[in-house]
Design brief:
With 285 residues, the chain is mainly alpha-helical. It is 58% helix and 4% strand.
Length: 285
């Protein structure tokens, strides 16, 4: 089986369209629509989000590329022209989060002050997992050198710029992401009285663990700085998420009084505040 085309010409014109870029555009559109839906479901306005989202896209791409270049500096020193050629791959997931998430939180606080930071992170966490899964299928799966380690197994695929069959890591990562998304949605559905921040912490733990073993088993290169940093960051994220989950759960079991950020979710998935006696307030119609 031949590699999936990574670029094509638009008709007879010299304009080259990169499938990697199309995949990223579709992924960002999906994330935009899904987050809008979750905002509405949870009772928040959405008219402020379009302008903020454009800044998030720009910041996440810059952050993702910058971190990748820094961790692969020796490669780009030899050919600086490659730095801007993102269609060849090279966007760090952790760099994208470091660029996009703080930008989104800062602008959200200005444009939608009723949306607290912790609540926003809880709402966006499943969106990030869903978008990560879609992006793996429509991004790295369609770029140069998108596969993982060489393999002779039946499920190996051919990728442009790589010799022989490769582990279809983008597909495997997408499966991981959709499994995590399913777990998060189950938490939201069945853990109704969860403390605010629990969904975020679960996302950190689950995604950090998968990023560690994906890099360790399927993508990593022994002694490569970027690979080592990804594995370390994955483990750190997993540990931090697990600790926060335990702390939040124990606090709730001890009956600690909620803070002004610790609202709960009703059975319809609409966020509500606690009444003066600790009971759930009536959700908006």
């Amino acid at each position: 089986m031949k590699p999936i085309p990574v670029s094509f010409h638009l008709g007879p014109t010299p304009l080259v369209i990169h499938t990697y870029g199309i995949g990223l555009a579709v992924t960002y559109w999906f994330a935009y629509r899904y987050f809008q839906r979750r905002l509405r479901t949870n009772g928040y306005p959405t008219d402020w989000f379009t302008g903020v989202f454009l800044w998030i896209v720009a910041a996440s791409i810059v952050g993702a590329r910058l971190l990748h270049v820094v961790t692969n500096l020796s490669t780009y020193r030899a050919d600086p022209g490659e730095i801007l050629q993102v269609w060849h791959g090279g966007l760090s997931s952790f760099g994208g989060l470091l660029g996009g998430v703080p930008t989104g939180l800062i602008l959200a606080r200005r444009r939608c002050p009723e949306l607290s930071t912790i609540r926003a992170l809880d709402i966006v966490a499943p969106v990030l997992m869903a978008a990560w899964g879609v992006g793996r299928l429509l991004g790295p799966q369609l770029m140069v050198a998108g596969g993982g380690h060489p393999t002779h197994q039946w499920y190996g695929m051919y990728y442009a710029g790589q010799v022989g069959r490769r582990l279809p890591v983008p597909i495997l990562q997408a499966i991981d992401s959709f499994v995590i998304l399913g777990i998060l949605l189950l938490i939201e559905r069945y853990y109704k009285d969860r403390p605010v921040g629990f969904v975020l912490a679960a996302t950190m733990a689950l995604w950090g663990l998968t990023r560690f073993y994906e890099e360790r088993l399927w993508l990593g290169e022994i002694g490569h700085l970027g690979s080592t940093l990804v594995q370390a960051a994955g483990l750190a994220l997993f540990a931090a998420g697990l600790v926060v989950m335990v702390i939040l759960y124990r606090r709730q079991r001890r009956g600690a009084p909620p803070t002004d950020l610790e609202d709960t979710a009703n059975t319809d998935g609409v966020l509500t505040g606690a009444g003066p006696n600790g009971e759930l307030a009536t959700p908006p119609a």
